[in-house]
């Protein structure tokens, strides 16, 4: 008699990005991993190598696909892309400051801070949660009894975790537990969420300057 069916979806944040100008790059094209980020991706791939991974899926952005590539190679599976894993929209994209004290030097942007609980300057948290949980559920159901790796970005991964744990979605950005190339794992038993685990194969890493929401 077989035991309960255990399926695990690993949400991986991409590694460090080469960003010497400290731009809030968001969904802008052309931002790729730094040499450190490439090493982080390999270390995370080694961490996941012992699992029975059936699929590796990444955001459409380069930095996520670069992080996912060594993971997919380690398991001999093709790298797939899911647009639902993309970085969140952000009105501060392309600037060198985020939604914080620096914005008060730019009166035209004050209106963007009208509701930090939504947030009013970017993609609503509820929309991020909806697309991320939709991706998690679809890939989980496609590979029941195995492991799936989804490579995304800091804010989408963190919002997905808060939604899975039934916490309110608004939060303090400086308290996100989502280090570079970290792994947030949703463990399901017979389709029901059992627990959420978190690991940092590269050790604790501070957010790289200019990578807010990355």
TrEMBL record:
<dbReference type="Pfam" id="PF00300">
    <property type="entry name" value="His_Phos_1"/>
</dbReference>
<dbReference type="GO" id="GO:0005737">
    <property type="term" value="C:cytoplasm"/>
</dbReference>
<protein>
    <recommendedName>
        <fullName>Phosphoglycerate mutase</fullName>
    </recommendedName>
</protein>
<dbReference type="GO" id="GO:0016791">
    <property type="term" value="F:phosphatase activity"/>
</dbReference>
<dbReference type="InterPro" id="IPR013078">
    <property type="entry name" value="His_Pase_superF_clade-1"/>
</dbReference>
<dbReference type="InterPro" id="IPR029033">
    <property type="entry name" value="His_PPase_superfam"/>
</dbReference>
<dbReference type="InterPro" id="IPR050275">
    <property type="entry name" value="PGM_Phosphatase"/>
</dbReference>
């Amino acid at each position: 008699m077989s035991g309960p069916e255990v399926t695990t979806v690993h949400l991986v944040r991409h590694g460090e990005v080469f960003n010497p100008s400290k731009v809030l790059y968001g969904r802008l094209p052309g931002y790729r991993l730094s040499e450190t980020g490439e090493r982080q991706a390999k270390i995370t791939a080694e961490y996941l190598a012992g699992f029975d991974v059936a699929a590796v899926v990444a955001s459409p952005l380069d930095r996520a696909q670069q992080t996912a590539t060594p993971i997919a190679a380690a398991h001999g599976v093709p790298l797939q892309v899911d647009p639902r894993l993309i970085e969140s929209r952000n009105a501060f994209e392309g600037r060198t400051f985020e939604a914080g004290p620096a914005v008060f030097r730019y009166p035209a942007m004050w209106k963007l801070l009208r509701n930090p609980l939504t947030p009013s300057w970017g993609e609503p948290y509820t929309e991020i949660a909806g697309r991320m949980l939709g991706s998690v559920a679809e890939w989980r159901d496609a590979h029941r009894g195995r492991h799936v790796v989804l490579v995304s970005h800091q804010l989408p991964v963190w919002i997905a975790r808060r939604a899975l744990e039934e916490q309110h979605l608004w939060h303090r950005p400086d308290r996100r537990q989502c280090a570079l190339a970290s792994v947030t794992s949703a463990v399901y038993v017979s389709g029901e969420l059992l627990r959420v685990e978190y690991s940092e194969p590269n050790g604790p890493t501070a957010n790289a300057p200019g990578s807010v929401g990355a």
